[in-house]
Amino acid sequence: MAEEKTFPMTLEGKKKLEEELEDLKTNKRAEVIKRIKIARSFGDLSENSEYESAKDEQSFVEGRIKEIDNMLNHAEIIDNENVDADEVSVGKSVTFQEEDDDPETYQIVGAAEADPLNGKISNESPIAKGLVGHKKGEKVTVTTPGGEMTVTIIDVQ
């Protein structure tokens, strides 16, 4: 039997998913059902774009509910208790610098809570994979889709 995929995440990330799930189940579902009822009242469903749109949204909402349920059921909360304070690991923030570039800081999180625009990168991303396990002060060569880059780990928190 295939092994179930686990979803590493921080406690904060798990809490956000639980809040999103609650909102989807209590608010979004009801809104979509209401839209479907209103669209049905317009008559002929075969040419009713409002109805099609509402049904598409319903599919999306139900799919997202299943996806979050699965992630929460297979969540693996990150525990950094046995990791050195200056070692890069999931759940920690790492500041690194490539040669003459400005330093960059990211928190390494599970894929379920990745949000690169807000400084949270997935533990499955090439940069995170290259940095995890290394320590503050180390020079690390990271292989990315754009090629290799050598960075110095400046800080780990």
From TrEMBL:
Protein role: Necessary for efficient RNA polymerase transcription elongation past template-encoded arresting sites. The arresting sites in DNA have the property of trapping a certain fraction of elongating RNA polymerases that pass through, resulting in locked ternary complexes. Cleavage of the nascent transcript by cleavage factors such as GreA or GreB allows the resumption of elongation from the new 3'terminus. GreA releases sequences of 2 to 3 nucleotides.
Keyword Transcription set for record: yes
Protein name: Transcription elongation factor GreA
Entry-linked InterPro entries: GreA/GreB_C_sf, TF_GreA/GreB_CS, Tscrpt_elong_fac_GreA, Tscrpt_elong_fac_GreA/B, Tscrpt_elong_fac_GreA/B_C, Tscrpt_elong_fac_GreA/B_fam, Tscrpt_elong_fac_GreA/B_N, Tscrpt_elong_fac_GreA/B_N_sf
Residue span(s) of domain Transcription elongation factor GreA/GreB N-terminal: 8-77
Gene Ontology BP, a term: DNA-templated transcription elongation
Encoding gene, per UniProt annotation: greA
Domain of life: Bacteria
